[in-house]
């Protein structure tokens, strides 16, 4: 299928997913599993956008965290992995994760996370942390450019000082490659190794701690290979996160942990469906969809 057809069909697929998951939500007898949520930006971008900024509004984010606080125990990914290894997952755990390392995570999400006692996990594109320019892949439409001139801070990457402050408050950090220039599967093995090595080394130099959790750029099953998993193990990682949809059962491979991406358009009902497992049935459909794309160049469809 052409990438254009794929892009055009995407809203149809999302609408179908919402309907299908409404039904699956009521299926009985599901294994007790813990959800991992994937966020990117949390920011009040109130303008009509030409394309997605992978953003959730701060008010929505607060409602979501309030719900998690009341219904789950929020733990970091490495805590979850330790519980999995010891067979201690109860099913009331949740992991809140953020990819890329946007400064808006510090400005808008961090105060809310502290308020509700949620320890989240953040995955950094290490080369750009501390930069005074936005990440190179953030293309701005007119609204974005206007907003950048008024509120430059919220378009920038985190600084290492902010990372340190968040770590001191119990937040966890891991690596998300050094440059995020492509999915690992689109790089030569040598370049993929360099992305992993450079991010691991930079993280250690800047924070004096070793990253133990990795998040794959783009993150679908087409964006990493077994060879990358071996590289990560060789660098001391305990687990890695994908954007393969659904929650993780006890037999889930630790280097292919599934997550559910939260979108700007998600109502609180959609959010509840996501955390209570309604999207567990969607992974198969996601695989069919991505296989139909027929190429590893998935940047057009996959979330960053
Ligand atoms: Zn990313």
SSE topology sketch:
Layout: H1 3-24, E1 36-39, E2 41-42, E3 55-56, H2 58-71, E4 73-74, H3 77-85, E5 93-100, H4 104-115, E6 121-124, H5 142-150, H6 160-168, E7 172-175, H7 189-207, E8 213-215, H8 226-234, E9 239-241, E10 260-261, H9 268-275, H10 282-293
Parallel strand pairs: 1-5, 1-10, 2-3, 4-5, 5-6, 6-7, 8-9
Helix pairs in contact: 2-4, 7-8
The protein binds zinc ion (ZN).
Zinc ion binds at residues 99-100, 176, 180, 217, 304.
What report would you give on this structure?
By secondary structure, the chain is α/β, with parallel strands linked by helices. It has a single domain (34-293), classed as TIM Barrel. Helices cover 40% and strands 11% of the residues. The strands form three sheets. Strands 1, 4, 5, 6, 7 and 10 form a six-stranded parallel sheet that branches. Strands 2-3 form a two-stranded parallel sheet. Helix 2 (58-71) runs parallel beside helix 4 (104-115) and helix 7 (189-207) runs parallel beside helix 8 (226-234). The protein is globular and about 45 Å long. 40% of the residues are buried. Residues 297-304 have low confidence and may be disordered. It binds zinc ion. Zinc ion binds next to strand 5.
Short description:
The protein is α/β, with parallel strands linked by helices. Helices cover 40% and strands 11% of the residues.
């Amino acid at each position: 299928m052409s990438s254009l057809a794929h892009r055009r069909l995407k809203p149809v697929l999302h609408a179908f997913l919402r309907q299908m998951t409404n039904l699956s939500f009521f299926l009985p007898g599901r294994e007790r599993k813990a959800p991992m949520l994937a966020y990117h930006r949390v920011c009040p971008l109130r303008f009509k956008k030409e394309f997605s900024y992978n953003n959730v509004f701060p008010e929505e984010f607060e409602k979501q965290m309030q719900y998690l606080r009341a219904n789950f125990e929020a733990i970091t990914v490495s805590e979850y992995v330790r519980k999995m290894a010891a067979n201690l997952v109860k099913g009331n755990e949740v992991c809140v994760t953020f990819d890329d390392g946007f400064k808006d995570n510090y400005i808008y999400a961090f105060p809310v996370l502290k308020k509700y006692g949620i320890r989240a996990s953040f995955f950094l594109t290490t080369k750009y942390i501390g930069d005074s320019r936005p990440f190179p892949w953030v293309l701005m439409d007119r609204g974005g450019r206007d907003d950048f001139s008024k509120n430059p801070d919220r378009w920038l990457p985190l600084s290492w000082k902010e990372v340190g402050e968040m770590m001191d408050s119990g937040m966890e950090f891991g690596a998300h490659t050094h440059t995020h220039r492509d999915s690992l599967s689109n790089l030569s093995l040598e370049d993929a190794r360099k992305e992993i090595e450079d991010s691991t080394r930079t993280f250690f130099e800047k924070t004096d701690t070793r990253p133990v959790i990795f998040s794959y750029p783009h993150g679908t099953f087409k964006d990493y290979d077994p060879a990358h998993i071996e590289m990560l193990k060789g660098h001391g990682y305990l687990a890695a996160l994908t954007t393969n949809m659904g929650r993780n059962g006890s037999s889930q491979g630790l280097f292919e942990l599934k997550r559910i991406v939260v979108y700007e358009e998600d109502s609180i009902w959609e959010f509840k469906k996501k955390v209570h497992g309604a999207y567990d049935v969607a992974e198969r459909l996601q695989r069919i969809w991505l296989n139909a794309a027929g190429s590893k160049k998935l940047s057009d469809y996959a979330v960053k």
